Amino acid sequence: MNSAMKKHGITLAVAAALSGPALAQEAPTTPQQPNVLFIFVDDIGYADMGFQNQSQDIVTPHMDKIAAEGAIFSAGYVTASVCGPSRAGLLTGRYQQRYGYHDNTAPFIKEPGIVQGLDLNAKTIGNYFQDAGYVTGFIGKSHDGDDKKYWPHNRGWDEFYGFNNGAADYFVSGFNTMNAEERAYSSIHRNDELVEDFDGYLTDIFGNEAVEFIDRHHDKPFFLYVPFNASHGPMQAKEEDLEKFAHIDDELRRKMVAMTYNMDLNIGKMVDKLEEHDLMDNTMIIFMSDNGGKPNGNGSFNTPLNGAKNTYWEGGIRVPTTITWRGTIPAKQVIDTPMISLDILPTTLAMAGIEQQEKWQLEGENLLPLLTGEVTEMDERFLYWKTINKSAIRDNDWKLVIHNTLVKHPKPELYKISEDISETNDLAAQHPEQVERLLAAFERWDADNQEAKWGWNRNLFPHANGWRGRN
To answer: Looking at the record's lineage, which domain of life comes first (predicted)?
Structure first.
């Protein structure tokens, strides 16, 4: 953590910690530690939320209202352009490459004996908040190791309800009549237990579970993480939602818009429950997508960005991002300062008055001073991305993209990203000094990473591991 942001974060944390007991003696009605509702969605593109003001066909009134009450980050990033590693970085507050977690779990491993999954020695955001006395809930998609020791209920979450895979069917009735392979694709668990047959639409089911979690735990501080699988494939929407968007001719886009609309309705149910318990002033609500959209796969849009999911152009890693805390974060903000999902852990720790420790080696920054207006800008820093066949780095102004690190002399692309978010003008030839500077910074960062432990290329990862999942 840089010194300026660390100073502010400790100031806020100490103030919260010192004020709590004193105020409790003078005024028994003092609010409890603030809650977190973190909504992390799947394969939703940069243009696919109404508050982004990019797409005319998207209808997301509940998230638009939440975003208007807080801050939208125009340059919000995740640490990877696919699901699994993006979630690993987010949940640990560290670049997932530190653990050799470069890609989704895959058919091939680097060497015999490697077990795919987030290093069991790594603490998650759930662990940090659980240790601080919070009730922690995880409702939705996990995408980690097959063994249950990697599953959320064994990684810091008091309550897990969801699935562990890259995708799941949205219409979930008939579990007990499915064959083993189908059931592995769609199975829902509550902690260790397989959820038996039930009817419903999965996004609604996750929304209802989140509402019930808030109802059960409204009288104590909680961290509720809701990683919806919407609007990742398979593209399955409710008929009534499809009818609402019958005017959209493209069938794939219509399904995507309908699925996103349904997700927004379920977010509305969570907010209504927070309002019912008078918790909105005491709850930070965070919204991000896990990676960029996949236009050819789920009909998402990344306008005006270049690229898509599984690329390190902006369309793969720059996502809709908003943070709201009514009464604390001023409303109607648009913040252009780059942020990354690694920042969520330090920010929520500071919000809760939990002092960050050096030994945790967190790699994000506390955004609260920026969000509240205590500072107007952050110290400049680099953001990094890497997997086996591509890498990227950016600072406030410049971004370098390298598409193939397997060849001896990869050709980098350089963009003045602060002025060219569509990456239309490659300036590598005109500014070799920037290429050299960014490459040197990237190599310094990369020196502390572990090599990729699994992947999709049999030539690079020669050992089959019996994996049979889906992305």
So the answer is: Bacteria
